[in-house]
Amino acid sequence: MRVCPAEAVAVDGASVSIVDEACIRCGLCVPACPHDAIATVGDLAKATALAAGGNAVLILTVEAAAHFYPNTPEQVINACYRAGFRAVHHGVLGDELVAAEYLKLWAQPEWGTMVRSTCPVIVETIRHDYPELVPYLAPVKTPISAEAQYLRQLYGADTEIVYAGVCLADGAEDVTAAITFQELGELLGSRGVAVNQQPQWFDRIPEERRRHVSTPGGLPLPVLQEAHQASRRFRKVRGMSGLSALARAVATEQGDLGFVDILPCEGCLDHPLLGPREELYWRRRVVGEAEPPRSKLPVLDPEVAVEVGTAFNFVRNGKRPPADAVEQVIETIGRAPSGKPWDCGACGYGTCAGFAGALLKGRATYRQCPPYQERRLGEAEREAAVDALTGLATFRVLKHQLGQEVARSNRSGEGFGLVFVDLDRFKRLNDSFGHAEGNRVLEGVGRELQRAIRLTDVAARYGGDEFVVMLVRTDRKGALRVGEVMRKSIEAMGLALGFEAGVVTASVGVAGYDPERPGTDVLEEADKALYRAKATGGNAVA
């Protein structure tokens, strides 16, 4: 969650899944998962069938030199031919096509702000999440899309094309099947081809591997040479986080930004699926040594015409939840003492609003939110301490407080009183008038008991229609007086609720704790007194 810029990781309890329609195939989640539970899966079965057919063309990107090392590029290409591919190209032609189109755009004097569109991860993120940037995308296809069109012009419109590269997003359009380098290795193995057993020289004339004006990814070399990184006409941005700042700059009309060279990482060699970032410079060296010298002449066939320009449309996918729904989730979580959202990031999202959006889309649960869990714990503790119906303390609290008071009484030598209250014939009342009326009576008893005690005393619901009141620093004589007040107030409360005389009454048992007799069970003594009061017919104090 922390690494996914598209918020495509869904969490439901112990289950974690990738939401396919939201995934932009950036690959950041794969190395970030400590359990190796995320795999990148392409169209391996389809690609294998196409290779077996003998007529498919393979686009094998130049990063293969690093993936298959120490096998040489010659061995890898020979193996692909042995597996059944009709031709093996290298993504260079697509880079050349796109670079030529960018040179035309660069030559135009006034284009204001233009965002690089060679990376499908960037393009799809903008189309889905930053529609304000769509008009600024350079109207140029991705290199793989351009090369696929070029190859179909070269070999025939019905040519099947397989893409093998680092990023499956590159092969999402205009190719028949897209696979990773790892899957290409599996394909070769299933076709009975061992890369390390291939000759270390090309056993047939290879397709064009040289560049003329392009650099890997499709930008023209002359542009990079002309526009240094401090240029106001050229801005280099790396990382998906740069999109939000770019969108804000465009929305607030902060002037022309020039050409924005934005990529999610430092090119395909820095892609998370290709290996640790610590090995980036090693990969660059391996690929650089495998790349042939530049051609002084164009490498594209002038007879093959391809339309490289394109237009990007908006995607109305309803991904952004309503603001009031997000606000409701934040209120459910609770706010920090400052009144602002917690924004602690412990849930995996940078802000509470981001978490709320994921939750509303079904990609997160409240279990991930520590402030919410802390709040629920507090509520649970309060619920365990307070009876929901009467507002009195629960038996759990009474038991704890009673133990504390016994210990205090033994130390100080001061006794305390305990009053046991039981409603008379409450089951008959429930059966005659219904549970709703019975609950009204119980609520009323809770109010009357609270009115009759001090802040230092404890009134608790013992269970059902039984109540216990602990009177601090009160002897049995004083407790009897309080018990009589409670009996009268409960009887009066019943009349106030509209019941006839004698329907709502209570029996009260009173006991006093004597520190001179530390082994006495004062609760049991009060219970015995209660039964004596009931034995008189009820509505009495004993």
Describe this structure in words.
The structure is a single chain. The chain has 3 domains: 251 residues, no CATH class; 47 residues, 3-methyladenine DNA Glycosylase II, Chain A, domain 3; 150 residues, Alpha-Beta Plaits, CATH 3.30.70. It has 19 helices and 13 strands. α16 crosses α17. A 4-stranded parallel sheet has the order 4-3-6-7, sandwiched between helices. The two termini are 65 Å apart. With 542 residues, the protein is of the alpha/beta class. The radius of gyration is 39 Å and the shape is elongated.
List the helices and strands and how they pair.
Elements: E1 9-12, E2 15-18, H1 29-32, H2 44-53, E3 57-60, H3 64-67, H4 73-83, E4 87-89, H5 92-107, E5 113-115, H6 120-129, H7 143-155, E6 161-165, E7 177-180, H8 181-190, H9 221-226, E8 234-238, H10 242-251, E9 258-263, H11 280-290, H12 323-333, H13 352-360, H14 370-385, H15 395-412, E10 416-423, H16 426-433, H17 435-452, E11 458-463, E12 466-471, H18 476-496, E13 506-513, H19 522-535
Parallel strand pairs: 3-4, 3-6, 5-9, 6-7, 8-9
Antiparallel strand pairs: 1-2, 10-12, 10-13, 11-12
Helix pairs in contact: 2-8, 5-7, 12-13, 16-17, 17-18
